[in-house]
Amino acid sequence: MLDEAAIAITTGAASNVIAYLAQGRTDAIRNRVSAIFRRGGTDQEDEALAALANDTAALSQRRINQAEATARWAGLFTAALAAHPSARPDIEALASTPPPVKTVSIGSQHNHGSGTFVGGDNHGSIQSGSQSQP
Q: Which segments within the chain are labelled E, that is strand?
């Protein structure tokens, strides 16, 4: 049985995994999950990576909610920590560093004058760069 601090760490790590998945950043978390579950052998590592892929799809298709996925990952981390106490620093690191929030910058551009404008409407005449002389 793990102590309360260890349970809090595994729950925090699970929450951060789900935050990555919810942002569509599965690739950003894959190596960290792999490193944690590698201690249990390649079978356990493969199962964790398959769970990561399955939960990514299930969350995006709304077959499970974030609370269900978090509970599942908390259980996976708890089992990994109980079997391999050496995984604690990696799980703590995952619990203490939430994913950065994705930001989107939206801008506006309006082009005036003649010429070719990339990514927008063209107003005015379009002239080629070279003209032939008779």
A: none
Question: The dihedral of CA 54, 70, 18, 29: what is its sign?
Answer: negative
The separation between CA 83 and the C-alpha centre of its own chain, rounded to angstroms, equals: 26
pTM: 0.71
Amino acid (one-letter) located at 36: I
Cβ distance 30 to 49 under 8 Å?
yes
User: With the C-alpha atoms ordered 93, 96, 97, 98, is the resulting torsion angle positive or negative?
Assistant: positive
pLDDT tens digits, 1-30:
578 888 999 999 999 999 999 888 899 899
**Nearest CA-CA partner of 33 in 85, 80, 82, 83:** 80
Dihedral, CA of residue 71, residue 48, residue 31 and residue 11, to nearest 10: 20
Beta carbons of 80 and 37 less than 8 angstroms apart: yes
Contact 77, 10 (CB under 8 A): yes
